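## tool: complex_structure
## caller: assistant
## args:
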Amino acid sequence: EVQLVESGGGLIQPGGSLSLSCAASGFTFSSQAMSWVRQAPGKGLEWVSTISDTGADTHYPDSVMGRFTISRDNSRDTLYLQMNSPRAEDTAVYYCAILRWSDRIMDVWGKGTTVTVST
Amino acid sequence: DIVMTQTPLSSPVTLGQPASISCSSSQSLVHSDGNTYLSWLQQRPGQPPRLLIYKISKRFSGVPDRFGGSGAGTDFTLEISRVEAEDVGVYYCMQGTQYPHTFGQGTKLEIK
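## result:
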């Protein structure tokens, strides 16, 4: 069974740092691009970042560029999101998802991990 | 950035009746490779999103055939032929043609 399990969420102070993980299983992780998508409380979905299958290419929206870093360890089948200098507006449920590049679709999603940025 | 605009934002529907959600993009979603990377996702309460439709009209594996997609260029539609109780949730369109990938605001489908 294809599965994605996020972890690492919690309470973080503005200006701190936090690292999220996404453990993948049931598919060849090293062959798939991966994405992070977030959802603020009561709000819609926002794409956060994408990384290619090898990790050589990464993409971010302006809202997190320079503060967040997506990475992956294909030997451990794990995706990461390093969050630096978080702001209150980064409070959200963070989902990881498989991005099937040929169709540009996110077809498998994890259940998400909650990040709260607050003093 | 490509802005995705959905209408309506809320849609009360009677069980067994059809429902339709529109999504328009601020610029054409036709990629230089000729494909249009417009997909639709469903998010049931308390659940992660689920892919329904991709490349405008292709139904994803396991999605009931009462869900259909249409459109071209900048205007797209998700149609549910006969709404069932399990269809309650929020529906999002998403474009993957250009970075940053962007979503519509979401349309809440509820039963009258």
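## assistant note: The longest strand of chain B covers residues 19-25. Chain B touches chain A at residues 1, 35, 37, 39, 41, 43, 48-51, 54-55, 58, 60, 90, 92, 94, 96-97, 99-106 (CB under 8 Å). Handing back to user.
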